[in-house]
Design a protein that fits this description.
Blueprint (H helix, E strand, L loop, with lengths): L7 E7 L8 E7 L2 E7 L12 H4 L15 E4 L2 E4 L2 H19 L4 E5 L5 H15 L4 E3 L6 H11 L16 E5 L3 H4 L1 H13 L3 E4 L5 H5 L2 E3 L6 H14 L5 H7 E2 L1 H8 L6 H4 L3 H13 L3 E5 L1 H4 L4 H14 L9 E4 L6 H6 L6 E2 L3 E2 L3 H11 L12 H6 L7 E5 L3 H4 L3 H8 L4 E6 L11 E4 L8 E4 L4 E5 L12 H11 L10 H9 L10 H4 L5 E2 L25 E2 L18 E6 L15 H6 L4 E5 H7 L6 E5 L4 E9 L6 E5 L26 E7 L4
Parallel strand pairs: 6-7, 6-16, 8-9, 8-12, 9-10, 11-22, 12-13, 16-17, 17-18, 23-27, 24-26
Antiparallel strand pairs: 1-2, 2-3, 4-5, 4-18, 14-15, 19-20, 20-21, 23-28, 24-27, 25-26, 25-28
Helix pairs in contact: 2-20, 3-20, 3-21, 4-14, 8-12, 8-14
């Protein structure tokens, strides 16, 4: 072999983007990632990748990666050694703890990094500062799924896997644009269509997924409960509910029945003709095996938890839970939304959803972690932490999140971050949030660390290190371990991701059997997996539900309007959503040349009639205003949205979250990202 010949290797890992969990091989030569190839052995994506997956390697060696710690001095960031940066962080956190105690902190954990990082950060918060003020960004995407599915079924996760849709006889897609947001899950829907399985898509917008469906039903934004109640009224009225399943396995039928009697014809609310309501209700109820697939169109509202429970109501009413081809399945938006919650990066639970309020759980964790006095109180959630900056919360630690772009009411977020005494941001790029930090710590991306991501079907997928982090950047578990040493904390001598994982398994009954040896197989394992001999659980609730009495719960839920509706001053309803070419705040996809070229700037879809009335032409610049801010964007004139409705992508800085509402779902504390009132002003040009 000549001296110039470089050995090429293939490192199997998991895509760092959406929650489908596609398997791919990173192609490495000369210590650099130079490409990807889909993993042909994976049962998840079967050798296929979406545009984001194909290009996921491009940002790894971006020239603007963070490569050394940065400390803000006299308003400017200067490079620092790890010792200087970590000593400063440790001293400042200790100072906050001494002055303000456990409630003086806010810890915010990313759904984009590996499970092991999520676990060790929440452990660091709880062991080091006795605080439950730890949360992850599922709060602003699928927090209502965790809350709602837990109330209905006793487990806050998808009941069935992606491929299992092919075993159904009817697919109901509600508030999900899977073809763009989760393309390889969308591929399963396309396979189902080819197989002849009927597909109904319910969405206010005529999406790429709606185009794939056999039947598209447009309804008024944020009226899910009224429409679901109408469907259930007619299912019960015509005796199409599963009486035996309800008697044997379900509570709350009479409460539901009484409530839905008020929704026999609710077209005035949801906008769907009665004949259509009956049609989709009866087709769903008559199917031998019917599955519901949903996403952020259901969750990102002040009624998010109730919307999820309404999906649970439909499934329980018709007996569509606990076997192949049925269930209620949220498509998780980010690669580790499920995992971050599973790891206990949540203000009221430890790993495996063990409640902090239960004395026996606290005692178990105290013994395992070698501490005392873990708190029993419900910590402060993600957006509520922002609201408390400078008041109750004095110091904040943000891992891999970009709140300035992704949280509602961006101007409010910026004002609040400025009020903190101390802010640490740990990330791979200098994001829009970094400018508000006092210390920036450079972490490792998915290609530079070992670990796991947990997909939306509860499948724990391996992530494997292919190359080293750039410059002085370090793996994130090393950073937390080093901070723990400086603070004299025990239990953080966990040098590898496997060590962290095993630390988690030891205190998490539902995942004790998920060993790295089992996860190394292409098909991996779906939790719960309570023993090392257990094969995992692809389908939940086969014999009983995870509730205290083992039964599912029906709920009588009344429709209530969104927190902010269109009026004379702000006459349009704004919705938000994802694109196939971008991810979250574009910190990665915006650095992929092909993806950036496809959609380099934000845009707003405006109905043809509205555009004609306002004199707006396609591709002209318009100014959108809400009660919280304004943004200029490109108009896309289309019939994909109905009159009075505007759709805007969520990925761009100085974009849609200048406008969105911080009003919260009272149960899950989800902000109403999917609905607010705006005005439109023609600017012209392009």
């Amino acid at each position: 072999m000549s001296e110039n010949t470089e050995v090429m290797k293939y490192v199997p890992t998991t895509c760092p983007y959406c929650g489908v969990g596609c398997s791919l091989n990173l192609v490495v030569t000369g210590g650099k990632v130079v490409g990807v190839e889909p993993n042909q052995r994976s049962p998840i994506n079967e050798g296929k990748l979406c545009p984001k997956g194909v290009t996921c390697w491009e940002s790894v060696h971006s020239p603007d990666r963070l490569t050394s710690p940065l400390i803000k001095k006299d308003g400017k960031f200067v490079e620092a050694s790890w010792d200087e940066a970590l000593d400063l962080v440790a001293s400042k956190l200790k100072e906050t703890n001494d002055k303000h105690g456990a409630k003086g902190f806010g810890f915010q954990v990313s759904c984009r990094t590996v499970n092991e990082d999520c676990y060790i950060m929440q452990k660091f918060a709880r062991v080091g500062f006795k605080t439950n003020n730890v949360d992850n960004c599922a709060r602003i995407c699928h927090g209502p799924s965790v809350a709602g599915l837990s109330l209905s079924f006793g487990s806050g996760a998808a009941t069935n896997g992606f491929e299992d849709a092919l075993n159904s006889d009817f697919i109901l897609i509600w508030g999900s644009n899977a073809v763009e947001a989760h393309p390889l899950a969308g591929r399963r829907i396309a396979q189902a269509k080819k197989k002849g399985i009927p597909i109904v898509a319910i969405d206010p917008r005529y999406t790429m997924t709606a185009r794939l469906a056999d039947t598209y039903v447009r309804f008024n934004p944020s009226t899910h409960i009224a429409l679901a109640n109408s469907m259930m009224y007619w299912i019960i009225k015509e005796g199409k509910h599963d009486s035996k399943f309800i008697v044997d396995r379900v509570n709350g039928f009479e409460d539901l029945k009484k409530t839905v009697e008020n929704y026999a014809d609710a077209e005035a609310i949801h906008g769907v003709p009665l004949a259509t309501v009956k049609d989709i209700a009866f087709r769903y109820a008559d199917a031998k095996n019917a599955v519901i697939i949903y996403c952020l169109g259901i969750t990102e509202l002040t009624t998010g938890t109730d919307n999820v429970r309404s999906m649970g109501n439909l499934a329980l009413l018709t007996g569509n839970v606990g076997r192949p081809g049925v269930g209620v399945n949220p498509l998780r938006g980010q690669n580790n939304v499920q995992g971050a919650c599973d790891m206990g990066a949540y203000p009221n639970v430890y790993s495996g959803y063990q409640k902090c309020e239960a004395a026996e759980n606290r005692a178990k964790m105290e013994k395992a972690w070698g501490i005392t006095d873990l708190p029993d109180w419900y910590g402060v959630t993600l957006t509520e932490q922002i609201n408390q900056c400078g008041e109750e919360i004095k110091s904040m630690y943000i891992l891999g999140l970009n709140p300035v772009v992704t949280y509602p009411d961006s101007n409010h977020v910026k004002r609040q971050l400025e009020k903190l005494d101390f802010l640490v941001v740990q990330d791979i790029f200098f994001t829009e949030t970094c400018q508000y930090a006092d210390v920036i710590l450079p972490g490792a991306c998915f290609a530079e660390k070992d670990g796991t991501f947990t997909s939306g079907e509860r499948r724990v997928n391996r992530v494997r290190k292919a190359v080293n982090p750039p410059g002085q950047a370090q793996e994130d578990i090393w950073i937390f371990s080093e901070l723990a040493k400086r603070m004299g904390l025990k239990g953080f001598d966990l040098p590898t991701a496997k060590d962290v994982w095993d630390d988690m398994r030891a205190v998490t009954p539902s995942m004790f059997g998920c060993t790295y040896e089992k996860l190394d197989k292409p098909e991996s394992i779906c939790w719960p997996c309570p023993t090392e001999e257990h094969p995992g659980t692809p389908i939940l609730h086969k014999e009983k539900f995870g509730t205290a009495d083992g039964k599912g719960n029906l709920f009588g839920i009344d429709y209530r309007p969104p927190a902010e509706v269109a009026d004379a001053e702000y006459p349009f309803t704004l919705m938000t959503g994802r694109l196939i070419f971008h991810y979250h705040s574009r910190s990665q996809t915006g650095r992929c040349e092909d993806l950036h070229r496809e959609v380099p700037r934000s845009y707003a879809q405006i109905n043809v009639e509205d555009a004609r009335r306002l004199g707006i032409k396609n591709e002209e610049i318009v100014r959108l205003k809400s009660r919280r801010g304004e943004t200029d964007t490109v108009a896309r004139v289309t019939d994909d949205v109905g009159p009075g409705v505007v759709y805007m992508t969520m990925h761009f800085a100085d974009g849609v979250n200048n406008l969105t509402n911080t009003a919260l779902d009272p149960m899950s504390k989800m902000p109403e990202l999917k609905h607010c009132a705006i005005s439109i002003e023609k600017i012209g040009g392009n």
